Amino acid sequence: MSARDERDEKRAVGAGGFAAYETELRKTERKVAGEIDPGLRGVVVAVAVLVAMLSMVLPHTGSASGIEVLTFAPDADAERVTITSIVFVYLVAIFGIGASVLALLTRRWVLAWAALCGNAVACVAGMLAWWSRNTPGVGGVVPPSGVGIGLIVAWLAVLVLAFHWARVVWARSTYQLALEEERRKEAATRDALARSLQHRPDANPEG
């Protein structure tokens, strides 16, 4: 094997090692880009989740608690709980508590986005649930009880959760866009360097 062949082989081995390192670096960057760092907002979110959990045992309307609305208990039937109230309680349980806890524990951006969307919908559902407790239903039937403290507390909790998850998701989205822009610039620089090396004349031609 000539000296030139040895140099080419070493260069190829070095390029392969660099490619493997670059691949591992990209995997690490993607993992970091998919995570969130709520910081102090995580404490606020955790407190809001606890408040949402507390609201489930408080009266949603009349004597029916959030858990009784969730499980279609007889007290909920007696209070003529509407579909808007049922949907709101389910959204609180699934997204206000479940998705928020998972997002905090795993720090996954996707779960934080799901928590944001679910809590945003819960904000609207809570407003409709509140309205339904003070409005006659089908046939002019008036609900026997108005809005309970549990519904109010749950609605305030999802408002706080929606706001803070929006800030967390927005911050991570901005970081991801900046990272993608940096990658595009790096790729353009590498392409330009490769083209310049291809067109550069051989400094040590054989023969």
UniProtKB/TrEMBL annotation:
The chain crosses the membrane at residues 40-61, 81-105, 110-131, 146-166. Keywords: Membrane, Transmembrane, Transmembrane helix. It comes from the Bacteria. This is Transmembrane protein.
